[in-house]
Amino acid sequence: MVDMDVTYDEVEWGRGWGANADLDDAFGAHLGAGLGYKATDNMELFLEYRYTFLDLSGDLTVSNADYSVTDKVDGSYNFGLLKFGINILF
Questions:
Q1: Is the predicted pLDDT of residue 9 greater than 80, yes or no?
Q2: pTM for this structure?
């Protein structure tokens, strides 16, 4: 779940300029698969892969002392994650 606000003030943009991005709440999904190998009674090796799908939308406002412009933004944040590790079992 994502809900994000980003603000750039005049220090970063120059005198009188600013920007604000407001992304709406969004729910995504992920698919995953993995393997585990029990090396000893107390240790397991694992390999996992997860791919996440997330579509985002919101508003972007850019302004200075004279005017302000707001526009809708849409995008996707899709990524894969590969994990390899050791689990210690108790």
A1: no
A2: 0.58
